[in-house]
Amino acid sequence: MESDAHPEDDRHWSLESLNKVYQQGYMAGLTGQPSSRHGHSAEVLAAAWEAGWDDGHEQQLRQQKSA
Questions:
Q1: Are 16 and 48 in contact (CB under 8 A)?
Q2: What is the pLDDT of residues 29-43, one digit of tens each?
Q3: If you write DSSP's letter for every residue of 18-40 in order, what string do you get?
Q4: Inter-residue contact 35 to 57 (CB < 8 Å)
């Protein structure tokens, strides 16, 4: 077992970490931050962040339309 494995390695993620990253992406999308700011190297975490960003951005657009 590698003791110096990067915490964002694709082999080391949990449902909790995916949810946390999704929520971070959601808030970024909701507040209008660019989608390129996720900063995750692991594909699974990057995908979770991007999914959250997409949902948050969509919510932001809906709120702007109804305002």
A1: no
A2: 999 999 887 888 889
A3: HHHHHHHHHHHHHTT--GGG---
A4: yes
